[in-house]
């Protein structure tokens, strides 16, 4: 696989669309994980304040 690891057998336009969509999914996953980390951090802080 070349050209950004897009599957072979695609036209150049299809490869670019595939790469753009995958990048969008990766960014969405990144923001979701960061959000969970922040949520868990604040939950931990709140639990320490209660104790």
TrEMBL record:
Origin superkingdom: Bacteria
Spans traversing the lipid bilayer: 27-46
Keyword terms: Membrane, Transmembrane, Transmembrane helix
Name this polypeptide is given: Protoheme IX farnesyltransferase
